[in-house]
Amino acid sequence: MKSINDINFKGKKVLVRVDFNVPLDENKNITDDTRIRESVPTIKKLINDGAAVIMMAHFGRPTKGGFEEEFSLIPIIKHASELIGKDIIFSQDIFGEKSIEVCKNLKDGDVLLLENIRFYPEETKGDLAFAEKLSKLGDVYINDAFGAAHREHVSTATLAKFFPNDKYFGLLMEHEVLNLQKLMNNPTKPFTAIVGGSKVSSKIDVLKNLIPIVDNIIIGGGMTYTFLKAMGFNIGKSLCEEDKLDLAKELMEEMKKKNTKLLLPIDHLIADNFSNEANRKYTENQTIPNGWMGMDIGEKSIELFKKTILDSKTILWNGPMGVFEMSNFSKGTFSLAEFIAQSTENGAFSAVGGGDSVAAVHLSGYAEKMSYISTGGGSMLEYLEGKTLPGIKYILE
Ligand code: AMP
């Protein structure tokens, strides 16, 4: 697979799928511009080559078909122009006579943004006729929206069919794909997966897929207690999914069968209610007394997990070890971030992704030390579940 860095796109009209789905406040100010910033290297590379860039993006989930102010990309234009370092030309529709004319007349180095592609209901249906029409606007297709790579939509997938010899990953996508392949296709052993977060139910498929691949699975966070209860421990009023007890047992059986070592917390930091100001204390062992709930892993668990993390050569971290948003219950999560950083310094490959663990690793101060932090929450999770992401598949096939 050729990198766009190996190609010069001078004189080409390049359709680029970017992820500009950023959060806005009530005054339509961008509150976190990470996703736009991540698209910049690809766009700048194309501008520097002398290509004309046609950016496609979605914003939110419009359902009516046609323009809806709430989901317009207009509030993004100014800031995106500043980050890209070039005034963005904006097109409110895609196939109107005027917009087709604008696309045709783009000069080398120009950057155009099409209004929210999801204003066309055909987009989310992967409609072939719509894809064909869209393909006429450019000579090359680049997908750089990893955050939307798990969607089989026109701009994230189907469009690639019309560029059999001119479809590429953008630089962000390329980075994600190379790292995900490194992680899952040929990991250096021992491979440890740290899986946390609130619920077993949201991680079932991830766990099932990881069991035969990894050597160790460390489980922490809210999902711990469903496992402990399934093993017969008292868990007080900790988070528990009663309907997943059998499943927890099955997963543990599967780990035994596959020789995958399961590490559960051996002690806990518990609280008498779900609040940072709650009374708190450490347990001696795995049991949680009635009236108390597990909010973080305990000191002995931290030490136990540390050893495994430092002995690992590949580490995947998905999901916090406790309620890290509350300062009194963040120690387990932040300590593990520190050990993963240390292990990475010693030569391990570390990957962090899939939602809250990314926020946690940034808060911990160790983000810079990780080998790879994925930018796509849902996409990363689906990849870990062993699913083929349409955004990747359509470019590679
Ligand atoms: P997830 O989105 O499934 O990765 O879950 C992340 C959330 O799990 C975070 O907001 C944490 O606060 C929460 N969490 C972690 N540990 C616990 C716990 N022991 N009890 C309740 N929630 C937890």
Summarize the structure.
The protein is an alpha/beta fold and about 400 residues long. It has helices at about 35-50, 75-85, 95-105, 120-125, 130-135, 170-185, 205-210, 225-230, 245-255, 300-310, 330-345, 355-365, 375-385, 390-395; strands at about 15, 50-55, 90, 110-115, 140-145, 165-170, 190-195, 215-220, 260-265, 270, 280, 295, 315-320, 350, 370-375. The mean pLDDT is about 95.
Q: Top keywords for this entry?
A:
elongated, binds adenosine monophosphate, Rossmann fold, six-stranded parallel beta sheet, 397 residues, alpha/beta, 15 strands, 2 domains, 14 helices
Which range does the strand content fall in? 5-15%
The side-by-side strand order for the widest beta sheet comes to 3-4-2-1-5-6
The biggest beta sheet reads: 6 strands, parallel
How many DSSP-defined strands? 15
Q: Give helix % range.
A: 25-40%
Q: Helix tally? A: 14
Distance between the termini: 10 Å
At the fourth level of CATH, the homologous superfamily of the largest domain is: Phosphoglycerate kinase, N-terminal domain
Question: What small molecules are bound in this structure?
Answer: adenosine monophosphate
Which second-level CATH architecture of the largest domain applies?
3-Layer(aba) Sandwich
Overall geometric form: elongated
Order of helices and strands: EHEHEHEHHEEHEHEHHEEEEHEHEHEHH
- The top level CATH class name of the largest domain: Alpha Beta
| CATH fold call of the largest domain | Rossmann fold
**Poorly predicted spans:** none
The figure for the number of domains is 2
SS-derived structural category = alpha/beta
Mean pLDDT metric:
96
Backbone CA Rg: 23 Å
